[in-house]
């Protein structure tokens, strides 16, 4: 019996190798029937067919759907996982180093919530706008020097508006200075299992040493949801008001994806367009991390496809479980990816040649000249002479 099983598996592998070589770019909708024919050609003992039919079909369906998702939306690193079980539903270069950009503010907000939990800070506490905070480039709220803002307003602006000056205000309030706060960020990252991340600043503005991975961002998102569920609503806020100004969230998935409930976007030229996106359907919460998209539209489309993939293929992935703790060393790079040449340096803009516009008066005159004057012929009545 063992010999019979071994021969059958060898035959199956041979048939599958031939199939993959013949259909290198096969898609789920077109080639599954062909795959079924290949499997049908392999005559297996009834005991093997009964025990392995469902797992094998699930495996090959899953392989096809994963290939389709990857092929249609290939970009930078990405990972999709189930929040409750930590089950990875899709991963692509999940351990490749990347610049986090404003995804850094997820870690900043984690430390804010920790400070509130430890009674070192409260929602009614005030943040001071220092000279260094005021000097930060956009995105920012641009308060006057020395102005104060309450934590309950500042945390909403930090997440929704992604204000860099507010991130520095929090860093100086909690850590005393930005370098000390960065040290706190790195200590927290190590505690959460974020092995590849390093933080230099609290906002994510460009720095060669500010790096993370898709897996580390997934671990951070999971920790925020698990450790501070009372503040999860902050990541789903669509807009926030400060005085007369209304600031809108950059996370357009909140407006376009059914069940979307957070979390954060980020962009600098080196990183491209990043997002940590969360959505809940039928009690199941799926989180997707997308790094290095070429545009906001590409980021939204890829996150949408990956979230859809997570909801549709959850059952199949339970057959081959991999958790967030698993690291793929084959995708670990010492130098982070760089999207600057693709996103920001697109070459010199072409000079537009403007034609001289003629005055409307001249045009009007020309039109007048072109028109032919038509004179009506009036029949002259004969003059009757008086007798």
Essential attributes:
globular, 387 residues, 5-stranded antiparallel beta sheet, alpha+beta, 14 helices
Q: What do these coordinates show?
A:
The chain has 14 helices and nine strands. It has helices spanning 2-22, 28-41, 46-72, 104-117, 131-134, 151-160, 164-175, 178-191, 214-227, 253-256, 296-312, 314-317, 340-343, 360-370, and strands spanning 78-82, 88-92, 126-128, 148-150, 239-242, 245-248, 260-268, 272-281, 284-293. By secondary structure, the protein is of the alpha+beta class. The protein is globular, with a radius of gyration of 31 Å. It is 44% helix and 14% strand. The strands form three sheets. Strands 2-1-9-8-7 form a five-stranded antiparallel beta sheet, sandwiched between helices. A two-stranded antiparallel sheet has the order 3-4. The protein has a two-stranded antiparallel ribbon with strand order 5-6. The longest helix has 27 residues, at 46-72. Helix 4 (104-117) packs parallel to helix 7 and helix 7 (164-175) packs across helix 8. It starts with a helix and ends in a 17-residue tail after the last helix. Mean pLDDT is 80; it is low at 5-10, 17-50 and 59-74.
What general outline do the C-alpha atoms trace?
globular
Tell how many strands the DSSP assignment holds: 9
Average residue-wise pLDDT: 80
Strand content: 5-15%
Using only C-alpha atoms, the radius of gyration works out to 31 Å
- Uncertain regions: pLDDT < 50 for 5+ in a row? 5-10, 17-50, 59-74
Largest sheet: 5 strands, antiparallel
Helical stretch tally = 14
Structural class assignment: alpha+beta
The rounded distance between the terminal residues' Cα atoms is 142 Å
Secondary-structure element order, as H and E?
HHHEEHEHEHHHHEEHEEEHHHH
Spatial arrangement of strands, main beta sheet: 2-1-9-8-7
Helicity range: 40-55%
């Amino acid at each position: 019996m063992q010999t019979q099983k071994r021969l059958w598996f060898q035959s199956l592998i041979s048939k599958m190798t031939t199939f993959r070589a013949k259909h290198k770019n096969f898609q789920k909708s077109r080639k599954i029937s062909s795959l079924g024919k290949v499997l049908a050609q392999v005559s297996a003992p009834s005991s093997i067919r009964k025990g392995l039919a469902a797992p094998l079909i699930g495996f090959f369906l899953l392989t096809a759907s994963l290939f389709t998702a990857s092929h249609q939306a290939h970009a930078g690193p990405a990972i999709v996982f189930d929040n409750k079980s930590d089950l990875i539903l899709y991963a692509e270069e999940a351990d490749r180093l990347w610049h986090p950009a404003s995804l850094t503010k997820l870690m900043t907000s984690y430390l804010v919530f920790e400070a509130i939990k430890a009674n070192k800070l409260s929602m009614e506490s005030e943040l001071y706008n220092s000279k260094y905070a005021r000097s930060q480039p956009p995105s920012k709220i641009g308060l006057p020097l020395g102005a104060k803002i309450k934590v309950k307003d500042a945390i909403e602006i930090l997440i929704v508006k992604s204000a860099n000056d507010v991130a520095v205000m929090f860093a100086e309030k909690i850590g005393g200075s930005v370098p000390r706060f960065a040290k706190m960020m790195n200590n927290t990252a190590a505690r959460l299992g974020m092995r590849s991340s390093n933080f230099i600043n609290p906002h994510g503005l460009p720095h060669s040493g500010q790096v993370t991975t898709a897996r580390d961002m997934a671990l951070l998102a999971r920790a925020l949801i698990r450790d501070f569920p009372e503040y999860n609503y902050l990541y789903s806020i669509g807009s926030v008001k400060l005085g007369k100004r209304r600031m809108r969230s950059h996370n357009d998935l909140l407006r376009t994806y059914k069940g979307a409930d957070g979390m954060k976007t980020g962009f600098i030229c080196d990183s491209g367009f990043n997002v940590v996106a969360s959505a809940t359907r039928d009690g199941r919460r799926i989180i997707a991390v997308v790094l290095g998209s070429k545009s906001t539209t590409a980021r939204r489309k890829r996150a949408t496809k990956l979230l859809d993939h997570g909801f549709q293929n959850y059952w199949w992935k339970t057959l081959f479980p991999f958790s967030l703790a698993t690291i793929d060393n084959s995708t670990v790079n010492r130098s982070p990816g760089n999207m600057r040449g693709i996103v920001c340096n697109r070459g010199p803009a072409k000079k537009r040649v403007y034609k001289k516009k003629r005055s409307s008066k001249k045009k009007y005159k020309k039109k007048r000249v072109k028109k032919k004057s038509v004179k009506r012929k009036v029949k002259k009545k004969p003059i009757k002479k008086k007798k």
